[in-house]
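Entry 14. Two folds queued back to back today. First construct below, sequence then structure tokens.
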Amino acid sequence: MKNYNYQKFANKEYDLVHSSGISTGEFIQDFSFLTLDGETKKLSDFTDKPIILETGSLSCGMFAGQSKAMNQLATENKDFHFLLLYVREAHPGKLVNAHNNIEQKCNLANRLYTEDNIENRTIIIDDINGTVHSILGALPNMVFIIDTNRQIIFKDEWNNVKILQNAIQEFRTTKTPQQQKWTMLPFPNVPIEYKIFKRAGWDAGIDFIKALPKLIYSHLLGGLCGKFSQIAKRSGQNPKNASH
């Protein structure tokens, strides 16, 4: 069985060709998580408003590249809860290690809040085995719109704030599931990647550079195989994993 909290990043840790996890139109179960102050809460505690749910970690350059824009989006859309699910380290290194226990994971989530100036977003923390992350699809920087009935309205396997902003506007108009997205990876943002690997450890940067050619190839292959063209399931279905 693959180790969820891998010690070094490698292409084998992610399937970029086949979609996995929950899909648009499905209902997500009412999962539990920890907050930064150590409380246990459930997703249903936030369903008084629609939810924007993003995944990220201290060592994820993709997440860091979207963070400032996500702060602004949260400021402009107070009618949504913005939840940031802290998952496994995308690029663990000597300075930011793979998680060995939940205490370490919570400490790193608190570092993210402080060091990256997370604004108007609530950081929530998955368990040490990544139970919720696996349900979602287990990619490093995914984003979802979830309505007040816990139905997945929008899913993008790589967060792109401009696409998300359009999806929010469409949701306000239609209230129905949208076509599932597979956003193409941008070229690495050198200043952001420098910051991330300086923080995580230069060994994490070396692992990323080694993996990058195959990473790009696999990602493009996933797009050509139609990951981004999946048709959203319409509302009214009752998937097996729904929990009401």
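Second construct, same run, same settings:
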Amino acid sequence: MSSENNYRKVIQEEMGKLNKKVNLKVFTSLKTEENGSKVHKCVDCEQTMQLLRIYEEYSNKLLHIEETSIYDEPEFAKKNDIQRVPTIIFTDENEREIIRYLANPIGQEIQPFVKAIFAIGGGPNYYEKIINQYIERISPSTIKVMITMQCPYCPSLVEASNLFAIASKGKIRTVIVDIQGNPDIGQYYNASGVPYTIINERPAIQGMIPAHELLRELIGSNIDIQY
């Protein structure tokens, strides 16, 4: 079985469990030509949309992928601070951005992506209780997680960061960056290895950190965190 078929099978099994409607925004380079046809001006956008349509296809019509062209909707793209395409965005019920993906949800990254979809749709979130417990001590924060598709530790950190963001009611925003697909971002932050985590542009945290240490970084405390 090819890698693509393996991915499709995993996505089919996981998305079949979705029982609530979820909308995802995707900004791409889709452009309308003079003859009326629509084409993606970047290869990555085409590949990302093909992948996301697989998620949508197996969701029992509960996942809706809303594709927005930076050419057709430049002001909307500017309003959402879209610096590059493709960009996948999760928003909450108030249309606030809480998760941004500059990475494809494929391979090992399927599971954390699916768990974020379930949680944004109102499904179980393992970290909701603990985030609510400490929410008053968390300042508005952005967690940037640099990853590669080959990294065995990245999915766990991506999952925790995303679920923190979903549970935080808008206080935490997560940005997931594949530094192989976006090498300039990796170079800008001197990401020599992954996972590589930056909270509010403070000095980077190199390597894997468990969820309780990530929470300590957010609240700035050495207290004993119990789940």
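Quick look at the second one. The mean pLDDT is 93. The longest helix spans residues 43-57.
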